[in-house]
């Protein structure tokens, strides 16, 4: 049984939503964030990446950064740019990208259910990134941006969201990247109870994107419990803000790899070694992979098509049969010497939203020697890994569109 509940949402006033809404903190670097706040002075990046308001070169983990985040969040409230719902509400959040819609419910998920694996994960987290988000949430006394959850299709949830979306929205705008964002506030008691009941019938929720935010929110919850020994379970810190989408509506893009060098091999030697685990042929036409276990490889100005040789992976292994695992286990590690892609500085990762032209630029510009295009991980694969209690290799999934930050905030006080 899943506990997914409403909360007193802090929201932008309607006419400022488009100016305040921002991409999440981990999509932009500091220079890109500075450019964005120069274009949109009210951007929530003032909270998400508050180093933009400090001198260039400021360490993003400087205590002043976290203090600035809290001051900026307070400013949105004190200046009337954002207001808090008087009573707990859900929200329905629809995003439309390239004509494709995904509709999620904004609410609070349970820290205890995350710790008990009722809310399942598929990625490891890095300690330094967790620590950053813990310090950020603690300083803000809030969950400023949501976790992206998914669940198996629920007709009962669909019935409520369809009914809510028949009314006028609270926010409705298109961001500069062409993604449509529409939000409806769910404040009717009947709809709130129907949503709570529908989620209560689910066996599990799954973290799709935002593993560091989820782990950090759980740590905040445990920290606040230590600070409040009389806690009851109903305090705000026992829950974290999330948007829960049905699995069938979500879109996972490819997450591609670039490697700095050929580990001492020349091109002919490298191709021979690749051929031990893959069928290799020159690519004609669009080099993008069209099926699982097929890869594109860009090397020395040319595209190749790779197909994993039969018998080189175990179809019964939810992790080992992933394309990211096959590439890692059969090529990146044995041929290129990339043993730990989490830490090896010779490898980098390029989200599929940037297109295959980005891979060509890495190689043609000399920043990489070879690039690999992957077929996207499927939602069925993600759920199978999570249900098995297993972990995917790093950078296995790239979800689009990204949730906007600043459209809803969960205050811990």
Strand order of the largest sheet: 5-10-7-11-4-3-9-8
Total helical segments = 13
How big a fraction of the residues is strand? 15-25%
Q: What share of residues is helical?
A: 25-40%
Largest sheet: 8 strands, mixed
What characteristics describe this protein?
413 residues, Conserved hypothetical protein from pyrococcus furiosus pfu- 392566-001, domain 2, 31% helix, alpha+beta, 20 strands, 13 helices, 6-stranded antiparallel β-sheet, 2 domains
Q: Can you give a write-up of this model?
A:
The chain has 413 residues and is of the alpha+beta class. The protein folds into two domains: 10-251 and 400-411, no CATH class; 255-375, 2-Layer Sandwich (Conserved hypothetical protein from pyrococcus furiosus pfu- 392566-001, domain 2), CATH 3.30.1760. It is built from 13 helices and 20 strands. The chain has helices at residues 17-20, 30-39, 45-48, 63-78, 111-115, 127-140, 155-165, 189-200, 211-227, 267-274, 323-332, 356-364, 379-387; strands at 10-12, 82-84, 90-97, 100-110, 119-120, 142-143, 147-151, 171-174, 180-186, 205-209, 239-246, 252-253, 255-259, 278-282, 294-299, 302-308, 347-351, 370-374, 398-399, 410-411. The strands form five sheets. It has an eight-stranded mixed beta sheet with strand order 5-10-7-11-4-3-9-8. Strands 14-16-15-18-13-17 form a six-stranded antiparallel beta sheet, with helices on both faces. It has a two-stranded antiparallel sheet with strand order 1-2. A hairpin with a 2-residue loop joins β15 and β16. α4 packs parallel to α6 (127-140) and α7 runs antiparallel to α8 (189-200). The mean pLDDT is 96.
């Amino acid at each position: 049984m899943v506990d997914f509940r409403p909360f007193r949402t802090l929201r932008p006033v309607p006419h400022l939503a488009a100016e305040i809404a921002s991409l999440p903190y981990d999509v932009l670097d500091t220079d890109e964030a500075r450019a964005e706040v120069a274009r949109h002075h009210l951007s929530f990046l003032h909270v998400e990446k508050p180093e933009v308001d400090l001198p260039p070169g400021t360490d993003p983990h400087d205590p002043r950064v976290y203090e600035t985040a809290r001051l900026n969040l307070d400013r949105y409230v004190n200046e009337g740019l954002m207001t808090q719902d008087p009573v707990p509400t859900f929200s329905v959040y629809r995003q439309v990208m390239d004509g494709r819609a995904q509709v999620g419910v904004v609410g609070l998920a349970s820290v205890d259910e995350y710790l008990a694996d009722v809310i399942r994960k598929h990625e490891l987290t890095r300690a330094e990134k967790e620590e950053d988000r813990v310090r950020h949430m603690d300083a803000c006394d809030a969950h400023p941006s949501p976790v992206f959850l998914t669940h198996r299709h629920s007709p009962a949830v669909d019935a409520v969201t369809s009914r809510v979306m028949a009314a006028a929205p609270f926010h409705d705008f298109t961001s500069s990247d062409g993604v449509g964002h529409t939000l409806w506030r769910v404040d009717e008691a009947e709809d709130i109870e129907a949503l709570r009941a529908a989620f209560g019938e689910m066996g599990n929720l799954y973290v799709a994107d935002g593993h560091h935010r989820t782990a950090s929110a759980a740590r905040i919850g445990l920290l606040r419990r230590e600070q409040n020994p009389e806690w009851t379970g109903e305090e705000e810190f026992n829950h974290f803000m999330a948007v829960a989408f049905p699995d069938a509506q979500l879109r996972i893009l490819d997450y591609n790899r670039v490697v700095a060098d050929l580990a001492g091999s020349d091109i002919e030697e490298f191709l021979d070694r690749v051929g031990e685990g893959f069928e290799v042929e020159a690519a004609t036409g669009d080099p993008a992979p069209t099926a699982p276990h097929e890869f594109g490889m860009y090397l020395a100005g040319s595209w190749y098509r790779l197909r994993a040789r039969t018998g080189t992976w175990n179809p019964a292994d939810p992790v080992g049969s992933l394309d990211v695992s096959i590439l890692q286990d059969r090529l990146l590690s044995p041929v290129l010497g990339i043993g730990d892609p989490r830490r090896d500085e010779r490898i980098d990762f390029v989200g599929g939203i940037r297109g295959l032209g980005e891979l060509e630029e890495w190689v043609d510009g000399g920043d990489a020697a070879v690039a690999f295009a992957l077929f996207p991980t499927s939602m069925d694969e993600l759920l199978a890994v999570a249900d098995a209690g297993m972990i995917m290799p790093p950078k296995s999934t790239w979800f689009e569109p990204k949730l906007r930050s600043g459209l809803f905030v969960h205050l811990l006080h």
